[in-house]
Amino acid sequence: DKANYRHFMAKEIHEQPEVVGHTLARYIDMASERVMLPVTLPFDFKDIQRVSITACGTANLAGYVAKYWFERLARIPVEIDIASEFRYREAPLRKGDLAIFISQSGETADTLAALRYAKGEGAHTLSVVNVPTSTIARESETVLQTLAGPEIGVASTKAFTCQLMVLASLAVAAGKTRGELSDEDETKLVHGLVEIPRLMAAALTIEPQIEKLARDISKSKDVLYLGRGTSYPLALEGALKLKEISYIHAEGYAAGELKHGPIALIDENMPVVVIAPHDRVFEKTVSNMQEVAARGGNIILMTDAKGAAEATIESLVTIVLPDMAATFTPMVYAVPVQLLAYHTAVVMGTDVDQPRNLAKSVTVE
Ligand code: M6R
């Protein structure tokens, strides 16, 4: 049931404050302001020397964001991998390593094969899945469920942000167990997480501005997405979302890689979407943006009030998002990224919920 929405994707984008809130309530104890996982982990994060995260598509990009969180908050080295590469590369795992798998459907063939491989290597297996009865859930040692509810649109939206919520909670729990985070740090981070649903709702109110922008984007043949830190995997997600439903070619790049190649593409015909909350790498991203502007590129900057005030560049459209704790921005910035892809696809007249050549669940490799 699409309720009053034109597409499932629109409904699912708008459901995010609610379902991310449900997911949060499953992983955070509001009274004590502590992360409280709904299951007992069969390992101690203190003993984990390495984590590998494996998934496909958008789930892989949620894992890529989580890599930054685990490394920053828990100081655990994380390898992020695409399931089809991981399984055939036969990546060495050590007994007792933690292997995390992320899948909305829990049925993705390559992710399942990667899970079976990791099990065979003696790793602890933990999966973040939306369908608790799925094969990946059944075969994993530990299951952390996302409470996104059924996701019908082929383009993953609410499953992605719920995956991020689970992974953020897990990273905080890991940091706490490993002594990298104090009680005070944890409280602060939990406060940041508790705010997310409200901030996502605020981000949804900028939809009319994005709808207008989408009309310009729909005239382009190529779009470049840039970001640094956790905004880098979100840039990849923005590009994936746009190409999958609007069929416009898009690429995501780490902003710092610009001058190692993609800057050659910049002209007035290729919009550049820059995802840059005012965080510790903001200034670096602004200098990349200046490089784009100097070459006649048209920039769409997604930032907050502080970022908008500091980034004084011509040919700039600014999308201003609410101020928030820097660590968890991807969950909120995902909203304009998804809306931009959605409205562009609507302008293009594509089959938004069932884009050509794609299946919701990829059960063959
Ligand atoms: O069900 P899964 O999360 O395992 O699916 C993984 C990918 O196939 C999926 O995220 C795909 O990339 C989406 N269509 C992206 O919007």
From TrEMBL:
> What is the residue range of the signal peptide feature?
none
Q: Where is the SIS domain?
A: 41-180, 213-355
Q: Which reaction does it catalyse?
A: D-fructose 6-phosphate + L-glutamine = D-glucosamine 6-phosphate + L-glutamate
Assembly: Homodimer.
Give the Enzyme Commission number.
2.6.1.16
Name of this chain's protein: Glutamine--fructose-6-phosphate aminotransferase [isomerizing]
Q: State the compartments where it is located.
A: Cytoplasm
- Which BP terms from GO are recorded? carbohydrate metabolic process; fructose 6-phosphate metabolic process; protein N-linked glycosylation; UDP-N-acetylglucosamine metabolic process
What Gene Ontology molecular-function terms does this entry list?
carbohydrate derivative binding; glutamine-fructose-6-phosphate transaminase (isomerizing) activity
Catalytic residues? Answer: 360
- Span within the full-length protein is 244 to 608 of 608
Can you name the source organism? Bradyrhizobium jicamae
Instruction: Alphabetically list the UniProt keywords.
Output: Aminotransferase, Cytoplasm, Glutamine amidotransferase, Repeat, Transferase
Q: Does the keyword Cytoplasm apply?
A: yes
Describe its function. Catalyzes the first step in hexosamine metabolism, converting fructose-6P into glucosamine-6P using glutamine as a nitrogen source.
Q: What are the annotated GO cellular component locations?
A: cytosol
Q: What class of enzyme is it?
A: transferase
